[in-house]
Specification:
The chain has 63 residues and is mainly β. Helices cover 10% and strands 27% of the residues.
Length: 63
């Protein structure tokens, strides 16, 4: 069984499995805290506060 290692972007906090963020191209980190799923960024107050304009998985804090 293979366990996938999730990584969060140091710039936009988007969570993916790659070493480079698919949204902004920045470096990702294995060290992050919190997990947020944005389903509708146009209606989400949290997405507006964090500056998120794409639906997806995001970390609350990235090291």
């Amino acid at each position: 069984m293979v366990i996938k290692q999730l990584k969060a972007c140091k710039n936009c906090s988007y969570i993916s499995e790659s070493d480079q963020c698919p949204l902004c191209g920045s470096q990702t980190s294995k060290e992050f805290q919190g997990y947020l799923i944005i389903v509708d960024h146009t209606k989400s107050a949290i997405a507006k506060q964090m500056g998120i304009d794409v639906n997806g998985k995001y970390a609350l804090r990235v090291r």
